[in-house]
Amino acid sequence: MNGLRSLAIDVILFYSFFMHLRQAFLCLVYNVTMILSFIIFLFLLFMNPSIFKAYDVRGVYPADFDEATAYRIGRALVEVLGFRRIALGRDARESGPSLLNELKRGVLEAGCDVVEIGMITTPMLYFSSWHLNVDGAVSITASHNPAQYNGVKICRKNAEPVGEQSGLSEIAQRVLSGDDFGKALTDGVTTFEDITDAYYNYFSLFADFGLAKFNVVVDCANTMGVLELPMYERFSDNLTLEKLYCDLDHPYTAHEANPLNTSTLSELQDRVTTTNADLGIAYDGDADRVGFVDEKGEIIPMDLVTGLIARVLLIKNPGATILYDLRSSLAVKEVIEESGGIAHECRVGHSFIKAQMKEQDALFAGELSGHYYFEANKFGEASTLAAFTLLNLMAKTGKSISELVSDLRRYVHSGEINSDVSDKDAVIAHLKEKYSDGILSELDGIKISFSDWWFSVRASNTEPVLRLNLEAKDQKMMKKKRDEILMIIRGV
């Protein structure tokens, strides 16, 4: 009897101990869950939503954009875009490897396969999206921004852009929501592929230098344009190559990699003149933009480059459609039509331009910012192809680049002028009313044209800024009209 009583007491004590242990375990789980939830809350609280731009993701590392954000972007882009296999590369920034690994982990855990393609330029990204058997391509890059920045650029198959209006807003909402991601049935797998030889082989086919010989200076600003140089080196019989800041062992240690900022071209201008070069070429940070300097050391306006490239392409493709962004000189439209092409204005911004190119089956498009889009890269940028096309024109005509550009210097352009404005809509309405006797286009902001001058005013999507571009038949009229309109915009 005593034995049964003792056994009962032992059972009661064991049960009591088990219940206390269970309660302690549940408290531990609860506390851990609360701590993790608090950590996630803090992460989302301090995540900067402004890293999601119109066309990509970009911010200071690690303050704005870090590995945790990269992971969530990897999960979200698969969920939102439905990718099953992507190409994944990066630029040369120090933060690139860790960010790539975390974005890749997110992609793999979402059940999507990854083809790693190493360090790449953005034109290589677009090439990979149609050269490889993938649903899209992603690069860890912050373009021309300084070394402390990093970000993400995404496209679908065939270089179709993913921007604010085509999936990026949904990705941002998912990343910022803080909600957990579901578990895929199986993780994706990683493979590796080097696309550089295929890329170089393909675009080298477009070089047509004949017996011409040129001295060329290329400024890569110690950024990703370095990866484009092997294409020039293939033509050593035609091209003597002078390299300026072409060191990826010490990336992002030179001047800003941004040829649109003409002050960054001063060293290139000097090198071109001191070496008697025929052409100077400057890449931006991810090599999707390119600027040019003529043999006299003069900067070639980027819109006029569009006209020169169109002239070459239309020799072999008569009647083709060429797009030019609405800020471009009227001379660009004239040259396209004089060369037998069909000229169409387009909005500013690569997603709009690529969509219009696809819709109108355009052969080529050029943007005032130095983006040059080719059907040959599925409407994606191909900066070295732009350089080769200029060299082709020089070889075919036997003329210097300054002689070729002189034919397009028909008008005087103001360049883009930004003004801080509190009520952008009111200013634009005032301009429409005041200049109502001109021909109005509202393709992108407003553009009003007269017989001997025109102006375009566009609102920034992210800042209280209006952007003015204006062109006239001569310097006197350009200055007069520019100052007249700036007085209205700035309320002077």
Structural account:
This protein is an alpha/beta fold. The protein has helices at residues 2-46, 67-81, 96-109, 122-131, 164-177, 196-204, 229-233, 266-274, 302-316, 330-338, 350-360, 383-397, 401-406, 424-434, 475-489, and strands at residues 57-60, 85-90, 113-119, 136-140, 149-156, 190-192, 214-219, 239-244, 279-283, 290-293, 299-300, 321-325, 342-346, 364-366, 372-374, 380-381, 412-413, 417-420, 439-441, 446-449, 453-459, 465-472. It has four domains: 11-44; 49-194, 3-Layer(aba) Sandwich (Alpha-D-Glucose-1,6-Bisphosphate, Chain A, domain 3), CATH 3.40.120.10; 201-406, Alpha-D-Glucose-1,6-Bisphosphate, Chain A, domain 3 (3-Layer(aba) Sandwich), CATH 3.40.120.10; 412-489, 2-Layer Sandwich (TATA-Binding Protein). The protein has 15 helices and 22 strands. A six-stranded mixed beta sheet has the order 1-5-4-2-3-6, with helices on both faces. Helix 2 runs parallel beside helix 3, helix 2 crosses helix 5 and helix 9 (302-316) packs parallel to helix 10. The protein is globular and about 115 Å long.
Please provide a brief summary of the model.
With 492 residues, the protein is α/β, with parallel strands linked by helices. It contains 15 helices and 22 strands.
